[in-house]
Amino acid sequence: MRLLLLGGTEFAGRAVAEAALERGWEVTIFHRGRHESPPGARTLLGDRTALDGLAALDEDPGEWDVVVDTWSSAPRAVRDAARLLRGRAGRYVYVSSCSVYAWPRPAGYTEDAPLVRDASADADLTDYARDKRGGELAAVDAFGADRSLLVRSGLLIGPYENVGRLPWWLNRMARGGPVLAPGPRELPLQYVDVRDLAEWILGAAERELSGPCNLMSPQGHTTMGELLEACVEVTGGPAELRWTAPEVILEAGIEPWTQLPVWVPPGSDLHDALHSADVSRAVATGLRCRPVAETVADTWRWLTGLGGTAPQRADRTVKGLDPQVEAKVLQTA
Ligand SMILES: NC(=O)c1ccc[n+]([C@@H]2O[C@H](COP(=O)([O-])OP(=O)(O)OC[C@H]3O[C@@H](n4cnc5c(N)ncnc54)[C@H](OP(=O)(O)O)[C@@H]3O)[C@@H](O)[C@H]2O)c1
Fold first, then answer.
1. Band of the pLDDT at 60, cuts 50, 70, 90?
2. In 3D, which of 59, 60, 84, 69 has the Cα closest to residue 12?
3. For residue 220, what pLDDT is reported?
4. Structure pTM?
């Protein structure tokens, strides 16, 4: 298979590139060149936000079986690339997000749930949800519903994470001492290891899947307890988890999801939206999710290789809890 990755040098795209190279696919990466391409891939340079930024794609006579696009900003960048490539590629896979569903998202929502409104393939930068939906519309406009695949990913973790969720927990555990562990311990989570997402995408491209697909582990693949305990274990055990009731955390004014990454209170709209999607289609079409302990161990290995400092995307907020706030809540809990 010949794969063109629009992106492919940071987190999700990088995982897709590496998995494709591993399968012996021919991989071309189009990016600005600010991060290194995975070894073995061919590189085309350009800036999707610049006038004539796609010139390298135009000059290259290449044809591809599949394009994978990880863009998450103004939708018109997807529109321009997809229009340029529609006669030269078989399928367009857009890495989207479950954020495209309208709020609130009911527990168990499927791909048929209502979507955010007012999104457009021609739009400039708006907000994350409408940018992602606009990207989907752009892919479908150019390639048609039967030649486009919309990967509605949930929470992504694993090696190369540049958002700061699992890296924050791992570094917190490595620091040791009493750790504010947001309960309940049995809280069911959904997420996808970026390498499992990559494998699913490649399999889906081979089988010529199209349409939208929620992409994350089945609910309860892991729990908050299993995730944090795996983090304690791989970091050598200096941390002592102090399970704390959701009400105590919320009363202290701590922001779920951002200040305590991954965690949202049970029974909330947030939990329905972020940890309870229906993923029957993904599972039926080949999604395999590795155990959480493996994801955590591999991410720790990668992170320690970087001296504990994970890369951070400039267009995402920094995650994590101030140690003083944590200590204060633990004292009063
Ligand atoms: N994190 C989550 O929990 C989560 C959840 C759901 C969905 N998602 C979605 O998953 C995707 C994550 O993808 P990723 O960012 O990790 O993919 P990636 O493809 O690994 O990294 C982004 C790529 O974009 C390239 N790039 C950035 N600006 C560019 C420009 N102006 N012109 C050309 N290339 C440019 C970068 O190239 P350089 O090397 O030149 O910098 C880099 O290769 C996003 O679409 C996000 O919305 C994430």
1. confident
2. 69
3. 84
4. 0.98
9 Cα: distance to centroid of ligand 1 (angstroms): 8
Side chain identity at 5, as an amino acid letter? Answer: L
Domain boundaries, the chain: 2-153, 159-189+220-276+291-332
Ligand 1 binding pocket includes 153 (Cβ within 6 Å): yes
Judge contact between 201 and 208, C-beta under 8 A. Answer: no
- Whole-number pLDDT of residue 61: 82
Q: Which among 97, 126, 190 is the best mutation to test ligand 1's pocket, defined by most ligand atoms within 8 Å of the CB?
A: 97
State the DSSP code for 101: B
Check if CATH label 3.40.50.720 holds for domain 2-153: yes
Two tokens at 42? 């061919």
Q: State the Cα–Cα distance between residues 88 and 162, nearest whole angstrom.
A: 32
Q: What is the pLDDT of residue 226?
A: 98
Q: Indicate whether residue 70 lines ligand 1 (CB < 6 A).
A: yes
Q: Is the CB of 35 under 6 A from ligand 1?
A: yes
Number of residues that make up the chain: 333
- Residue appearing with tokens 């390298």: 56
Quick check: CB of 37 below 6 Å from ligand 1? no
Residue 284's contacts (CB-CB under 8 Å, 6 or more residues apart) are none
Q: Taking the C-alpha atoms of 325, 331, 332 and 333 in order, what is their torsion angle to the nearest 10 degrees?
A: 100
Q: Report how far residue 139's alpha carbon sits from residue 93's, in angstroms, rounded to the nearest whole number.
A: 8
Q: Are 285 and 213 in contact (CB under 8 A)?
A: yes
DSSP symbol at 100: G
Average of per-residue pLDDT across 320-326: 97
Give nearest CA residue, ligand 1 atom 23: 7
Residue 229 pLDDT exceeds 90: yes
Q: What is the C-alpha separation between 228 and 241, in angstroms, rounded?
A: 8
Residue 129 neighbours by CB under 8 Å, 6+ apart: 97, 99, 100, 116, 119
Q: Which two tokens stand for residue 243?
A: 């399970």
